[in-house]
Amino acid sequence: MKNPDPSRYVAENALELAIGRQVRAYRTHQGMTVADLARGSGLSPGMLSKVENGLTSPSLATLNGIAAALHVPVTALFRLYEETREATFVPSGEGLTIERQGTRAGHQYQLLGHSSGQSPMVEPYLVTLTDESEIFPLFQHDGVEFIHLLEGEMIYRHASRTYAMKPGDSLYFDSDAPHGPEQLQKLPIRMLAVIVGRHGTDTD
User: Is the pTM above the cut of 0.70?
Assistant: First the structure.
């Protein structure tokens, strides 16, 4: 007999699992034990444990009893199921090439993922600077930025300070201050840049 596929179980029982996680979250937040909630809802500890672990499809009467004991509306128990969970997978070398201000100077930006959410806006890029690249002016934008150098060497400026960066070095900074590569010392340069700002913000 084949072992059950866990991913198939999660897909087929997403509602039960979401309700169970929400019940447990409310219970622990209120400092209640399983026995406490079982008494308040009129359920046995064993049944409540099955509900919290997504092992049973609770009836509406059961959910009403649990919600009443937790002092929340029954609709609150469905909150995790109703929320959208996003994921973006980008195979190696298949990032979406983006035109940005730095592109004019020979800098290539490959977008590695995106979110349809409103704020904050997170943009992860693989930035490549080749021997055709030129140093471009410093930039400023709302939010924060994280860069991690993968290949090459450069001097990177942030505000009044400069940082000699080699492969493995990282820099996290307030991107409202002027910043950008000041000297390209060893080419090609590849770095991971993660920009966190607001939708519509102009970033380098």
Answer: no
